[in-house]
């Protein structure tokens, strides 16, 4: 066992030049992760960053950890293989909105359904950046892009709703303008046992600049970001004057003064039924309305690779298997 | 039943070999009867080969030709290599089974028909105008018309089984009858019935009663002249068991992992005819085997590569449509140079094609089915038990050369069975390779570093450093990498260098695989038959017949299809005539023509069925005499 050594951001930074566009939101996510890992006392050799394809998926190259830059959409599959083979490792999935919800939608929902112990950081910039500006499955209806010169007619995914819909055991949202919030969210996601899905609102300053300004700009946050805090009434605004109530399964924004604080929903991350969190996820259809950030859901349920390991251990309880016994099982006969 | 009561009155006639085909509706349990008969014959010591043939539909419309399921078994008192061209005996449980199979029966062969099923509705469904059992149309065969359903119901009447359930035991009646006809020892069948139906007494009793009734019917009905004996074969000394290709593949994987000192990780998506490998391996958690039923074929490939990256022997199993879907992942595995196995149990294509039938039409897919230059070694099994060896050889290559390997079997091998002189684990090769645990290079300032693409000068393999190893953190990915460092690199000369390194690594395996051997007893043959995969048995059988007839023919069979054995060009050029029989439209023949500029003639068959020895014999003789 190595002596505990205090590591720093430098120990988690590779020698490769970071090649995102200047001003890209990806830089701040990278910084948050590189600061967080040493702060959490994690060892670089036990971290594996697995990505798909897209701008954010270059992330592993910049981490001085183990990493796989895989193929488009398939990072959750590669990560599932790694995590199932090696439950001792911390496996992170770095993905984007196109990678995880378009070409890789199937793997995303199945990794969440199985509850593989993965920390999935989904960089949502609502655009295809690496292919230079086509609309994505999270782009708003009417989005004018190179592939939709007359405006997109596709209805977008709400990634938080998707994750809750497949009963992900940990679902959270953060944004690239708040390092402290990102680090705290990532820490919780990492510590969660099972699949943790984190949507990061991330600005693409080249193809979709300012997509989230309406909610994450400093002067907008108080009115437009709803900070979810476990056990507290869901209120926002400078004075906490706005609140959220849930009636008939539907979340609505109200003025606290007009309904009374006792009618305001109290956030509960640990509700087994995902409906409460789902209702919260429906408050905003895009970053143009008051939007909840923080942890929507954090529940315990069996972790895939732990269950796999448990079955193996149970089967091996009575001793090690013998290949010769296997080959010679059943009817055999001797020819002399 | 005891040995005393099972002896037929007349002494049995001894046969050197016999081919029996059980045919019925897909709900009639013909595969089960075939399996049992095979098992008892194997244990008895016959050499044997089997050919199951069943519809893709789980329950095709009852009584129709489309719904016919059959199982052919060839048992012999000598070494045999195919399930037999034409049955000597056809067991037909209904008119459709008769109609679908009668054309294959040898002239003068025997038919045992269940007369109860030859009623107007079934006859009509099978397209018969009259009843072939009665209209004399089968007069050139020996016909045994037996009311199997009636006799089964009668036998089972005291078991408590309802008539509709008892009727389903009629396959056991057939099995009992055939067991009598061919003087099979009964112990293992009786033990199997006891074990298999232990939890359901009524079903157990009905099946046992039907089996005994069939056996006693043969003994007492006096419609059979006598029973037949097929003596035990003189096989190479050793301990034998019976095995199908898919089980041999699964066992080969367990053995390969053990000999590699690695945990085995299989990710697979259900697909015919490969699913049985997943089923088999899922049972063997005692060996530490992890199996994941993935959400799709692509995920299965990704999971297997992920497991290999993490230090396991990663494997994915599938059939042709799954290989299509895994292609992009395999390209990544080629690029990041990790050891993993892709096992393709080939079936009839294109598209969904013939899911339950055999074909060898994925060779070009295995060779070239990835974008860019992405070479993969290919190993093909040639018999059911050889699947075991092919998998271990594939794993050896994958580990030593740090490369994904394609292993080709097919539906015929997967479901066919044969006696196998199985090895002991002491006879298996050690195929382990060490993980990289130390740095292997230096930064310009002299500090140590890990170079993930610093190759072994002999094999060109890169080191395998797995997560969790301190100091060797590194990134791999599909973007072109700089030689030695593995860093992302787009330089023209580096790309060309890496393309050649990847190609040379695979080509270099030729020095590390056995030379192709030629079976040419006289040494004077002018015709060489070059085969690969499951055509081995049929080519061997045909070559024997040709030689028995006094002509000369040579046979060479490829297990390694990429790279080819290093002497293949010399071998091909030694023979004035080369014939390449394949269950595709000429894929290997095109490869050898392109590679060696030899005038290889192609013989193709794409009917979803293996070659018959007679077909090959005819073509060989035509070329020898031509």
Describe the secondary-structure layout.
The complex is a heterodimer of chains A (336) and B (626).
Chain A lengths: L25 H14 L7 E5 L14 E4 L5 H11 L4 E7 H7 L1 H10 L3 E7 L34 H7 L4 E6 L3 H13 L4 E6 L11 H4 L4 H4 E4 L6 E2 L5 E6 L2 E6 H4 L15 H7 L9 E8 L5 H13 L6 H5 L4 E4 L1
Parallel strand pairs in A: 1-2, 1-3, 3-4, 4-6, 5-6, 7-11
Antiparallel strand pairs in A: 5-11, 8-9, 9-10
Helix pairs in contact in A: 1-6, 3-4, 5-10
Chain B lengths: L2 H4 L6 E2 L2 E9 L4 H15 L2 E7 L14 E9 L12 E4 L2 H7 L8 E5 L5 H6 L16 E5 L1 H8 L7 H5 L2 H12 L5 H10 L4 H20 L7 E2 L8 E7 H16 L3 E5 L6 H8 L7 E4 L3 H13 L3 E6 L1 H17 L3 E7 L16 H6 L9 E3 L5 H16 L2 E7 H5 L1 E5 L19 E2 L5 E2 L25 E3 L14 H16 L10 E2 L7 E6 L3 H13 L5 E5 L1 E3 L5 H7 L2 E6 L4 H10 L3 E5 L8 H13 L1
Parallel strand pairs in B: 1-8, 2-5, 5-6, 6-7, 10-11, 10-12, 12-13, 13-15, 14-15, 21-22, 21-24, 24-25
Antiparallel strand pairs in B: 2-4, 3-4, 9-16, 14-23, 17-18, 20-22
Helix pairs in contact in B: 2-7, 5-9, 7-9, 10-11, 10-15, 12-13, 18-21
Report the uncertain regions of chain B.
Answer: 1-8
Largest sheet of chain B: 7 strands, mixed
Task: Tell me the name of the CATH class of the largest domain in chain B.
Answer: Alpha Beta
| Largest β-sheet summary of chain A | 8 strands, mixed
Identify the CATH homologous superfamily of the largest domain in chain B.
Pyruvate-ferredoxin oxidoreductase, PFOR, domain III
Task: Count the domains of chain B.
Answer: 4
Oligomer: heterodimer
According to CATH, what is the topology of the largest domain in chain A? Answer: Rossmann fold
Radius of gyration of chain A, rounded?
Answer: 22 Å
First-last Cα distance of chain A = 56 Å
